[in-house]
Amino acid sequence: MVQLTCNNLTLGYDGKTAVAGLNFSINSGDYLCIVGENGSGKSTLMKALLHLHSPLEGSINMENGPQPGGIGYLPQQTAVQMDFPASVWEIVLSGCLNRCGLRPFYNRKEKQLANENMEKMGISHLSGRCYRELSGGQQQRVLLARALCAAGKMLLLDEPVSGLDPKVTAEMYERIRKLNEEGITIIMISHDIGAAVKYASHILHIGNPHFFGTRDEYLGSDTGKAFSSRDGGRKP
After folding, report:
1. N or C: which end of the chain has fewer CB within 10 A?
2. C-alpha span between 146 and 207 (Å, rounded)
């Protein structure tokens, strides 16, 4: 089932085009990696998918429209976020905020969901800890649990392993892979082409020209071959 479609999408700021002519569609359960040069418009596209940025032209169509509990988002970590003075429990539970509607409190179902996602990410024992006291890998697992509380069917991940050491990076990729196997659609921005071609079912390469297709199609394309070789020639 088609979950998201972008038609002739043009994005930019103040009337200036950042990326133009994007056409792709995502089915339920896909794992899409968005790759491309720095400044190519990857993060701008992510903001548009989150309805935080309006297209200059074209359209973004989602199954049943944007729904509370439909999309979870894991942003890039910033220094301010890493020093956030809240408990792990408070941060994870805040992912349920859109589910509350006008209700000024979390109900039992939302608290149960937060507990389940903390357990899934292996951070239940950190519940009472202050977020800023955690390691980078632990913080990312907290934010992923929070995103899962918001997500019903789709996760948007912006460089989820940025700044992590190789061991923790591998563990994070495995957690994301398992979530995808459980039926959650993954859309991930990555500078790691090796991980993209190892885990993704589809690749969107934003560049000149754009490319959208399966992982195998990307590896066989001129765009994929050129970009992979510049990234060190890593193979899946």
Report:
1. N
2. 32
